[in-house]
Amino acid sequence: MINNYCEQMSERQPGSRSISFRIDPFLLKDLEHEAFRKDVSLNFLVNQIVRNHLEWNRFEDSAGMMPFPKGMFLHMIEMVTRLQSDEENARHPDIDRIAYKAAGMVSETLRKFVVLMGKEYNFHTALSSLREYMKACGIDTQHRINGTTHVVIVYHNLGKSWSLFAKELLKLILEDAAKARVETHATSDVAVAEVRL
Predict the structure, then answer these.
(1) Structural domains in the chain, sorted by start
(2) How far apart, in whole angstroms, are the C-alpha atoms of residue 162 and residue 148?
(3) What are the helix and strand counts (H, E) for the chain?
C-alpha cells in the first residue's frame, strides 16, 4: 500500500485528498525506482501519471492518435528534406504544402482532444493540448507572457523540415484559438510563435 503519512502531509495541495489502495509489489518497486531516478517523491510521480492519463492518454484512441517511433518520423522528415535539395539547394514547392497539410491534421486532432475532454476550445485549452502533444513526442515547449504578448517556443532539434512543420502548427492552432494574427519564425532547432491577446 502507498500510505506514507509524512509524505502525504508535506505534499498535500489545497483540495487534495489522501487515499489508500493496494498495488502490485512489482509495480510499486518500479514506481519507487522511477521516482528515485527522476528525483521526485512517489506521491508526485503517481499524481503525474494519473494526471497524464486523465488529461491525455485516455483520449488518444478517440482522437485518432497512435504511437509513432521517433526514428521513423525522423526518417520521413529526411525523405521530405531530400525533396527540397537540388543543385542550387532551392526550396521544393511541395515542402510547404506537406508541412501545412501535416500541421492541419495535427491541429484538428488536438482540437478533438479538447472537445473530448469536455472543455471549451480557446487559447488556453488549445495551448495546453499543444504542450501535452509536444511533451508526449518528447519535445520541450515554453510559454512566456510579455505584457499582452504570448510567446510559444518549441525546442525540437529535428532540423529545418520539422521546424517548418512546427511553425505551421503553431500558426494554425494559435490563430484559430486566439482569433488573432500570429507571427512565427524558426531556425533548424526551434520554432517560435507570438500572438497578442
Answers:
(1) 20-55 (no CATH), 67-196 (3.30.1380.20)
(2) 28
(3) 8, 4
